[in-house]
Amino acid sequence: MKYLSRVFWLAIGCTFLFPLYWMITMSLKSKSEAYNNQFGIPYSWDWINYSEALSKYHFFVYFENSLIYTIGTIAITLTTGSMLAYCLSRMQWRFNSAALLYVSLGLIVPIEVVLIPLFQLIKWLHLKDSYWGLILPYSGFAIASCVLMLFAFLRSLPKELEEAACIDGTNVYQTFFRIIFPIVTPALMTQCVLLFMRIWNEFPLAFIIASKDQFRPLTVGLLSFFVSVGVSDWGLIGATMVLSSLPMIIVYMIGNEKIENALTAGAILK
After folding, report:
1. What pLDDT does 267 receive?
2. Which of 15, 106, 180, 251 is the most buried (most CB within 10 A)?
3. Helix (H) or strand (E) holding 73
4. How far apart are CA 185 and CA 124, in angstroms?
């Protein structure tokens, strides 16, 4: 039974890894070999697809745009989300519970549901085809999960931290940035990795808002490249997919332990 279980999970793991294997091997095949040897290992590694992808595909423009959207969203979400989570978890005020419930509702509203009114609002604010046109909606949708996760971490901290800081003469902002903020840094780093993967892969909103080529992120730029190339050169398409996926794969390999800790945090926090 134990042997069958291992075989089963190995087969499941292979199904997840196969698209990555296909993408990498396809990027190293010539145009003719991509049709004759679709799933096998390349007979000879053809690296010219990568140089052609970098020359024909505006990789660095799309990469820079994706980086701006991701870093901008992470900075705004973590700054505002951590301060709001601190306010909700450590302070007692009249509408505390109602505010927490309102923030929690943000988890059940997908982007696709509010796409049309959000597009009208961004157009009315003259933010369409600008970096803020995507950074602000991304931050708004990400802040709910950020607040709720940090709320759980901050709630587990002892009250004596603020009491000791108050005795030393610090105000609420000094207490937050000098005492609390360093303590919740591991949770912030976990949120940073999760936000990076979420924003880097986002497509529907970016496709609607960033219509000009100079503001397109990698996901939308990749679609435009596929449309222009067609299905005649799968090696070139594979190389562009590898280049576009490489930053996210690197971030996941660095932060996968933090993601696993975040997924199990609710089971160990008291």
Report:
1. 47
2. 180
3. helix 59-90
4. 37
